Amino acid sequence: MSRSLIGGLINNGVKTERLLATDPDAQQRQNITQQFGINTLENNEEAVANADVIVLAVKPQVMHQVVSSLASAVKGSSKMLISIAAGVRLHSLAEWLEESAAVIRVMPNTPALIQAGAAALFANEHATETQKNTAEAMMRSVGTAIWLDTEDLMDTVTALSGSGPAYFFYFMEAMEKAATDMGLSNEHARLLTIETALGAAKMALLSASDLAELRKQVTSPGGTTEQALNTFQQGKLEDLVHKAMSAAKERSIELSKILGE
What we know:
Low-confidence stretches: none
Structural class: alpha/beta
CATH superfamily of the largest domain: NAD(P)-binding Rossmann-like Domain
Number of domains: 2
Shape: elongated
Distance between the termini: 25 Å
Strand content: 5-15%
CATH architecture of the largest domain: 3-Layer(aba) Sandwich
CATH class of the largest domain: Alpha Beta
Number of strands: 7
């Protein structure tokens, strides 16, 4: 995710000398420098000394350690921290920082890697409007971005767009397998599945009609599409999707409690 942000910012005109990345692995640092032409450091405290914006792009399980190590460097400054770690809540970050710092949580998703991401943001009370605009601009460099009214909605966003790409991959995988079982070659089944998903997403994005209306537009009474949709409805696909997303949301809540300890 950090690589996608770096690439998106550079593509949107941010000069490479304004960006600095850290990684404990020397090979990773070398790869980042070669790919993007930016400087890298091993030491986080050294890296954030002159930074205005600090992006915490680490695994949730190590966030406590990383944030605690930055507490002294952030104390008394106007630096903004952006956390993209799932499940780590603002109150935990504030506790680890031991300081009233500007912190913004962001839930991005993996299509940010190709500048087609969908992100949701929520800021604590210490973030200024300028800082919020900066965070939003950063996320818009790799896709679309929305602001949430409450932090609790991050759990829903995690279940929707955070985990969502995997749902579509799973459904596409099932469609591809069904097509090969019915006689199509693997190559043709894969191509038609991917292009169909891409076309449907583009239609939904560009159309003024809602999803239900778009579905009706391609469903002729008594036709093939209606037969397929009737089968989905008989299998209670909508209920299954709701159950799956609820499970993802509940797990997000559970993880926030574990990670906040």
